[in-house]
Write a structure and sequence with these properties.
The protein is an alpha/beta fold and about 260 residues long. It has eight helices and twelve strands. A hairpin with a 2-residue loop joins strand 1 and strand 2. The radius of gyration is 19 Å and the shape is globular. The structure holds adenosine-5'-triphosphate (ATP). The site of adenosine-5'-triphosphate has 10 residues, from helix 1. InterPro entries: AAA+_ATPase, ABC_transporter-like_ATP-bd, P-loop_NTPase. Keywords: ATP-binding, Nucleotide-binding, Transport.
Length: about 260
């Protein structure tokens, strides 16, 4: 599924949080949404997931306005994995993953439910061993993998991930993003780890104070030293990795007095 974000803005209490956002995600591509704390990544993902209605502009999913779709149609199209999914419900992992099947059940689902969807999703997110464990007892990383399984069980065409690896160790980070890529869905992930973004994404989009300040493929010099200095306040550069040939980040440290309050 192709996603077009057209001139989107979102305001709250008279304050503009994101503005003039244009984003094109071709079917099956992986877009990394980058930017410092508070730059608007989560807000944009929430608008793209249909949780927030844009104050201006629109989001098109294969040409259809996402915010005019029924909740069921939207949930079958787009799944969101939140940054820190919290629920106080005393559910098992299998129950939480099963929540992803709700849009596929009932009279209006259009097709019979797939009995294997939950097990397949748990296998993919490597939480099958945790199936009977209760959600409140899980570690941060186990919760993150369970939320991926819930999103995969939803069988969406578009996967939105908000800091999906922030609780994962290095091995699980690489495994998680490899598996997400293998799903072949149109994926947009907010990422703080620029090295992971360079390693896994097709395109990068950088937000700063609610606006897109740079965008392009990973090979297109999006993360220039000037941008890294201006947006993140760091002295860093992207170089070609001698073994993989992929771009990777080399940093020297913060630039005094440049990190935004
Ligand atoms: N409902 C709201 N009411 C008021 N301010 C909000 C609301 N939602 C977001 N904001 C503000 O909008 C700005 C952008 O927030 P957002 O969570 O989108 O940033 P982010 O790039 O995801 O940040 P981080 O990297 O820290 O997770 C922040 O200053 C935040 O405080």
């Amino acid at each position: 599924m192709r996603i077009d974000v057209e001139s989107v803005a979102w305001q709250v209490n008279g304050r503009t949080i994101i503005e003039d956002i244009d984003l094109l995600c071709e079917p099956g591509t992986f877009t990394g949404l980058l930017g410092p704390n508070g730059s608007g990544k989560t807000t944009l993902l929430h608008v793209m997931a249909g949780l927030r209605r844009p104050s201006r502009g629109r989001v098109l999913a294969d040409g259809h306005d996402l915010h005019r779709m029924s909740g069921g149609d939207r949930a079958r199209a787009v799944a969101l994995v939140e940054q820190d999914a919290s629920t106080n419900l005393d559910l098992t992992v299998r129950d939480v993953v099963g929540l992803g099947r709700i849009p596929h059940r009932g009279r209006w689902a259009g097709a019979p439910d797939d009995p294997d969807a939950i097990e397949v999703a748990m296998e993919l997110a490597r939480v099958s061993d945790l199936a009977e464990r209760r959600w409140p007892t899980l570690s941060g990383g186990e919760r993150q993998r369970t939320q991926l399984a819930r999103a995969v069980a939803q069988r969406p065409a578009v996967l939105l991930l908000d800091e999906p690896t922030n609780h994962l160790d290095l091995g699980h980070q690489l495994d998680f993003l490899t598996r997400v890529r293998e799903l072949g869905l149109t994926t947009v992930a907010a990422l703080h780890d620029l090295e992971l973004a360079l390693g896994f994404c097709d395109r990068l989009v950088v937000l700063d104070r609610g606006r897109v300040v740079a965008a392009g493929t990973v090979d297109e010099d999006v993360l220039t030293p000037e941008l890294l200095a201006h947006v993140y306040g760091v002295d860093a550069s992207v170089e070609k990795h001698p073994v993989t040939g992929r771009p990777h980040l080399h940093w020297n440290g913060p630039i005094a007095g440049t990190v935004h309050a």
